Amino acid sequence: MSQNTIDTISEFLLQAGTEYRVFDFSRGIQAIDSQLFMDYETNTQVIASPRNGHAWFGILFWNKQLNQEHYIWFLKLPIDENSLLVTAARNQFLEIVVSALGKELEHAKERQAELPENPFVFKPSQQQMADFNAISKASLGLNFDDKHLAVLNYIKAPSVQDWRALSLQSISDFAVQMQTSEVQQTFLAKNLHLMSPAFLVSICTSFENVRLTHNIVESILNLYKQTEDAQLKSMLLRALSKQSHSEIPSLLESAIKSDSTSVSELIVIAGRFWLYLTDPNLLNNFLQAAVNKDASFDLFKGLYADLVQVRILRPLLLNLIRDPQQNESMAEAFADLLADYKKNRPSLYDTEFTNNSFEYRTN
Fold it and tell me: Residue 312: helix, strand or coil by DSSP?
């Protein structure tokens, strides 16, 4: 780092005397090491799991010499076809930062570290914001308030308590701090099947960012098999996305092969279980399921475009295009994909799809 130039966001934060934490928002919320973030910035490390052609980050920073405030930037930075950060975009963002806040964050206090509108920031959903607040509090060792105890009261007696009085933040807080309480984990595993589907949708989204006990995972697996609620099934899948269990691979295989599996479940599998799709047979079956679900091939094209961004899957997906053993429906889907690419888009990598019936996102 030179004295007069700032080449990366990491350098800016260090030169400004801040402490900071970086969180990957691409597929769930996960804390990442500051060195890994620096490697992303210097293109010595590929972005492992981008979404919609971007790397998504939450950066939490503070400078105790200035004040006790914590500031947050939510950034989405474009990546190239090699899954590397586009440094020109990052440099443009840095220019905006330095212009607004100064090289030493000297204007941060009066401006609350807020930046002018620019294409590199995003606004998290309410659910993401609640989850991030809980995760960042735990990361910084800050105390949780007592509101999450109301969630525990509901979990202890879901047939008696009214979940509608619970706030989204209290549910997220409970999901994060529960990891240190064996008693709370026991009640959750025991009563999961008694809880309101609407409550489960919220807490399962938070669960995708935490590690769950074996008993809780067992309860989620059992409920997934029992329920016919498509939205709940997709959220239960999300809750399993960071868990280790011997039954998860077979569950995914069964879901992919089942005609009753919903579009939302296929989207969750692409967005959260992509590592399982490194199995060529499972990947092929997954794409076939997408073809079977939507005769227009929009679902297939959207899922393909999402997965081809993931560096570990890209060679497998490109090889499938050239596979002479494709059946008729898959061959037709790939032909439509390539025709769409040649006509409208500079790169398969940039593809993102929407239509009138649903909007494809994996956030």
Answer: coil
Pairing state between β 30-32 and 19-24: antiparallel
Residue 54, strand partner residues = 51, 78
Smallest CA-to-CA distance from 54 within 12, 98, 90, 97 is with 90
CA triplet 210, 216, 219: central angle to 5 degrees? 135
Name the residue among 120, 52, 121, 59 with its Cα closest to residue 88: 120
Q: Tell me how far apart the alpha carbons of residues 64 and 310 are, in angstroms, rounded to a whole number.
A: 38
DSSP letter (8 states) at residue 221: H
H-helix segments, the chain? 9-15, 34-41, 87-101, 108-111, 126-140, 148-156, 168-177, 182-191, 197-207, 214-226, 230-239, 248-257, 263-272, 280-293, 298-307, 314-321, 328-344
First and final C-alpha spacing in the chain = 34
pTM for the full predicted model: 0.89
3-state SS of 267-304?
Answer: HHHHHHCHHHHHCHHHHHHHHHHHHHHCCCCHHHHHHH
pLDDT at position 342 is 80
Q: For residue 270, which of 318, 228, 304 has the smallest C-alpha distance?
A: 304
**Whole-number average pLDDT of the chain:** 90
| pLDDT reading at 347 higher than 90 | no
Block residue for tokens 């509108």: 117
Query: How many residues does this entry show for the chain?
Result: 363
Confidence of residue 356 (pLDDT cuts 50, 70, 90): very low
- Measured CA to CA, the distance from residue 260 to residue 34 in angstroms comes to 43
Tokens of 19: 């402490």
pLDDT in tens, 184-243: 999 999 999 999 999 999 999 999 999 999 999 999 999 999 999 999 999 999 999 999
